[in-house]
Amino acid sequence: MLDALVDLMDAAGGRCAYADARWVDHSHEALTVVDGAIESVDIVDEEGVGVRVRVDGAWSFAATQTLSREGLQEALARALALAEAEPRRPAPTPLAPVAPARGSWRSPCAIDPFGVALEEKLALLLAADEAMAGDPRLGRRGAFCVAERAVKAFASTEGAACEQSVVECGGGMVAVAVADDDLQLRSYPSGHGGDVAQAGWEHVVGLDLPAHGAEVAEEAVALLTAPPCPEGTMTVVIDSEQVALQLHESIGHALELDRMLGYEAAYAGTSFVRPEDLGALRYGSDALNVTADAVLPGALGTYGWDDEGVAGQRTALVVEGRLVGALSSRETAGAVGLEASSGAMRADGFARQPLVRMPNVSLEPGDGGTLADLVAGVDDGLYLQTNRSWSIDDRRLQFQFTTQLAREIKGGELGGLRRNPLYAGHTPRFWAGLDAVGSPSAQQVHSFTKCGKGEPGQFAHVSHATPPARFRDVVVRAR
Amino acid sequence: MTRDALLDAARRAVRAAGGEALARAVSERSVTARLARSQPTQATDLQRARVEVLCVRDGHTGLAIASRTDDDALAAAARRAHDAALAAAHAGPGDYPGLPEPAPARGHDGFDVATAALDPGQTGGALAAALDVAEVRGVELAGTWTAGAVTEAIASSRGLEAVDAVTDAQFKAVAQAPDGLRGYAARAAVAAGAIDAAAVAAEAADKATPPPGAPAAPVDPLDGAGTAELPVVLGPDAVADLLQMLGVLAFDGRAWAEGRSALSDRLGERVAAPNISLSDSVRFPGTLPHAFDPEGTPKGPVPLIQDGVAHRVVHDVRSAARAGGGATSTGHAISPGGAVQGPIPRNLVLAGGGAADEAELMAPVERGLYVTRLWYVNPVRSKETLITGVTREGTFLIEDGRLAAPVRDVRFTDSVLRLLSTTQALSRRPRLVGTTDFYGPRFAYGVVCPALRADGFRLTGVASPGV
């Protein structure tokens, strides 16, 4: 298919300022068990080509599933026609230069998840579900696993011609306990969508879902009668997974350069961070060090090249609390005078054009030790664990999160369960309260597979490597 | 693809699957064009098709989706669906009660020939008209124009054969004044020709304009407090956001049967003010209709809340079986075989009230809030319908019955049913609010609702410190 894309780009060269084309052959499998019964076995296979052109300073894109030479030419013609119909196209700004991508890249995978018998996968999920069973207060329990394979080829009018192959695999489980007016849930190994990695079936086996079933169910039921979470301004220790979501929402998205430039004002929003803040803004305390890392092995935001042919790379975003970098495309990097794109353009399948999407944005470990060490530094506070819900404004400034559970911290020791914890804050003030970050041994990688952005909407898959962390002066409420 | 070609693909897929099977062939054509900083940024032209094959074996379902319609692709998808259902059946009988018997679906007026043509010139013309208004008004414009045509054909081993075709168009605009104040407006319709992009841009510009005599800087409606409760007038876009979330939290028949719904054990109870009548009405004037759901069940009206009393929830085939008591699918499946998250209403209609317009709703408010739209709405405690979100692009302080000043965007944390319980008045004419962002295959839906006035809107923080 790569040859066909290269031929198409040869044809596009004289008809627009720039063009690229992506072929994606995507397979997806999702298995779900609910309350002891197999709920669904869904398998998707989809293949197509997306052609993107730049006419003056505006982008147009057309997608097709007709993969013949004529079909590709027709898609190119549609993209060009759409561009020609657009009023007031901006003057072309220079794209940040990049060496043409060449070669191939493949994610790690030991056991091909599509080669594992469905019966074997379902047996594991049924065992996990069974491990949660028993308490009549459980309104629902469920276990699931997913596998994805995307084979891609990319070519551009600047001579790029590369191929990539990615396999993702993961799973998780959830128990929902209900009472008259209350609903509590616990999940493993994360709050949403389980844990997914660029890996094979060995990743799901390694999660050992059945071994965690009893604890998940017991905690969900226990939360129904746990005391309410205390309110006030206090010190909190946040578990690695919730730190990942906090980082994703209040730093990752805020540092997308398209948002900072106003390109996403109509939907996802803008950012409180301005391009001129680069190198100047105090984002948090000295303990805050954040890196965008598209070469982190096994993480979902890892790739050989992004979807405009820029190599995956590591980019420092925040160093000792000071903003030093942003997530960019070739266009946005060029717009603010950066020498190169950070390689953050990704598309959700063949039928969407790439957007600035965060690669793995990670909190660099500190010297705070283990979770127990972080807790030991708190005389009176809370430990918050596993995300339950999240919301942040369209400039990524004011947020409010709830977690599945809290535990009181008294005298440096973890206490009993507390239900319905909710905390809120403003991004720079919150990160200014970061006073300790767990050590490298406490860092874990967490995945998100439903990160939404763009019109038509696109989901991105991304991971975050995060240790648990401690924050001072956090506002905690019951509702 | 033509209707006949899609129906032929669905038939061939059912034959390839053998046994109990359903196939749904869907084609989509759409155009989306985005604006930012008063310039076009990204435009997208999509043509895609897919065939969903559902096999049912011993109470288990297997679903496979192919993106080609040739015999080889359909046979491969049918085999995968068959193997998936069979693998599930190895664990013992399942609880899927079987495909629905064929039933005739009524027609609708949800297809517009001109919109289906997807003329790039129409897209460019809409953007140009909106940009002209922005230039005259001195605001910077961001926005999105989208139009699409979706045709689906469904066939099953029970003898079901049906075809449906719909179109939709939407335009939304975010205007930003030189002082940073932003305003929002949007319209959706079956026909692109029914949307006046210039008028939408003008309405957004109006929302980005401070009321006469307003202070230069947006005010803090919480007056520095951590929380506050204020009377509120919610515009239709904000009401639609609330109702869309209520649809998930309250009317999902699967969650209702499992005790997870806000209405579990509450049907027949008063849950809202007497002036609240909410239904799922797929053929209500102005909505985005569909003839049947992905299981082939014809869609019809379902009263959800009548005169403030919880009345019904919606079902797909699986949730109806789980609910028992003679429940049947109401045509609200999200996918063939039903989705794990359960059925949801996608044509919500909130009946209008007696107020002539939003100005009349504001008239009795001594001090309160006017909200154009909400953003990033998520549940906090689902059984209480307690949700949180922020206001965005058009939030004003009401004083002495009139808009008095733009305010900083605020966070709210409140219960949807509590707000509907304190709803004092609604505007007379509901309008369609498009509520889909078109993740995945295009499926247009929305909420038809009026503006309303409610008491005690609970604010829990100031969002952006700017406007």
Please tell me about this protein's structure.
The complex is a heterodimer of chains A (479) and B (467). Chain A is of the alpha+beta class and 479 residues long. Chain A folds into two domains: 2-225, 2-Layer Sandwich (PmbA/TldD fold), CATH 3.30.2290; 232-477, no CATH class. Chain A is 21% helix and 40% strand. In chain A, a hairpin with a 4-residue loop joins strand 6 and strand 7 (183-188). In chain A, helix 1 runs parallel beside helix 2 (69-85) and helix 3 (118-132) packs parallel to helix 5 (209-225). Chain B is an alpha+beta fold. Helix content of chain B is 22%, strand content 35%. Chain B has helices at residues 3-17, 71-89, 113-116, 120-137, 197-207, 236-250, 253-257, 317-323, 358-362, 416-421, and strands at 20-36, 39-57, 60-66, 140-156, 161-176, 182-189, 228-234, 278-280, 302-306, 309-310, 347-350, 367-371, 374-381, 386-391, 395-399, 402-406, 410-415, 423-426, 431-434, 446-449, 452-462. In chain B, strands 7, 12, 13, 14, 15, 16, 17, 18 and 21 form a nine-stranded mixed β-sheet that branches. A six-stranded antiparallel β-sheet of chain B has the order 3-2-1-4-5-6. In chain B, strand 1 and strand 2 form a beta hairpin. The longest helix of chain B is centred in the N-terminal third of the chain and has 19 residues, at 71-89. Chain B is globular. The N and C termini of chain B lie far apart (47 Å). Strand 3 of chain A pairs parallel with strand 2 (39-57) of chain B.
Tally of discrete structural domains of chain A? 2
Helical stretch count of chain A? Answer: 10
Mean pLDDT of chain A: 96
Radius of gyration of chain B: 23 Å
Number of strands of chain B: 21
